[in-house]
Amino acid sequence: MALSGSYYARSECALRRFATGIRRLASHTGLLVPVVFILAAACTSLSSAPPTPAPFPISGVRQLSYEYAHFQDLMWSPAGDLIAATRCPVFSSQPLCFQNEETVLIEPTDGSLQAIDFSPLSSNQITGYPVFWAPNGEKLVLYVREQVPQQDGESFEDQYRYLVYTPSTATFDEIALTGIAVGMGPAESEALIFRSDGTDGISLGWLNLDTGKFQGESAVVELSEGPYALSPNYKFLLQGDSSDNIRCRDINSLSIGSDSGFQPLISLGCYPAWSQDGSKLAYAAKGDPDFAPNRLLIANADGSGSVSIFGEERIADLAYPTWSPQGSFIAFTKGGPSGSNAIYVTEIPSGKEY
């Protein structure tokens, strides 16, 4: 299980690396030595006293993470035993996700956390984030970035690819996946992807991973940054324009096989997540376009009948809901101190109408 202090040190102590550079300069010039000690002392202070995410303001909600970090892309495994997420360090109150993100696996019962170790693949730096689970929950598809040194010994080339990770054996498999993957079919040999249609358009369809054959299903005019959520019956794809909480705008729906494109479904909502049986949606919602989401709602699959999980309470900076396989729990994030957030789990009361 990761220790909050050590991760905070790694996030904030770019100061130490900066101080080391100044120290080298000082060894040649005899100057700036006081600055070195000031920065080193500041880093030591930060390492020993990281901000701690607070308990959720409503009783009965369980806290899973306590680190000074930023979590996103929560995905509860269909097997129920793990929650995959992206973990990013925080520096100067800002999450640093690009080139610094880690994929972590969290035990939903006790919050114990393990970062996926890419070192068996390569000695190069590899970072990545989860894309989706296989339907049986035994494998996790990742999108990774590897920094490959070039012949000049100074520059690097970024190489991107998809990998399949098996948590039970901690092993990786290469996957012949091209385009932008948004979901896996009922068989692990098919993935739903966006790709160029050969002209100026975009096609959504199924890619057979064994043969490489692509079966187009729908023409799409343009894409957003997502996230996307494929329905359990493989008939609908939801799109949220939600690259950050402030940009949480609308949730749109596409009927796979139709060329009508994405159609409006829910206004001022983001981070859509399907229940395992496909009958319900969970999502973050807000009342003001200029502020972060402050409610978690459950609605019918067509967006109707929305009900707030926490009643009339407005709780700032909620995001990334994900259902447990049985539909009795939802994990999500809430913003914390200085650009961080934390992961929480709430039970869905069985007697309440959603």
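[next item in queue]
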Amino acid sequence: MLPTHQIPTHTLLVLSLSIFALSHNSYAVSFQGNIETLRFEAKTNIPAVKVIGEVPKTTISLNVDGTELKNAETKIPVDDLKTGMAIRDRHMKERIFQTPDGKFPDIKFVLSGPVKFTAGTETLVKGLLTIRGTEAEFLSKCVFQGEGLTFAAFCKGEVELSKHQIAPPSHLGVKVQPKVTLAFHVRGNGNESKK
């Protein structure tokens, strides 16, 4: 092996850049996470009456690169939304989620673009939410924990029914307010995959 002083300068430069690149490889993590809890709350024209419900644990596709959420997608069947009362569930399904042709398309969410986050700090997350086949922007404020392989987010946002061409339903004089609050917890553990 040649002494260092005899190695051409351009070779040393290439070696240095190669070592730097190897030591700074970044990894994206793609995995199926879970929406551990998703609760919704709709206020009405009567302060003491609220419609509160939840969705059972459901999967969400995530792509996380360190402290950047690059992608998130999920879909929820309408039948998964439960309020604890069968007749109220049926009314909700028919009056909010049924299309004019009698179908009940899944609720879908797709992240609008990459989101940089800092663990423990509230971050605004923008996405596209599709309800009854109508897509509209959905904004939520999320507090993230962990990064990469261990990832969690606690989020809260509001759905404006009018943006999805949905008129607030009413029953026996009780009318739902035009905004519905969503609170959800996303968590996942993934397998590392080189970008």
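[queue empty]
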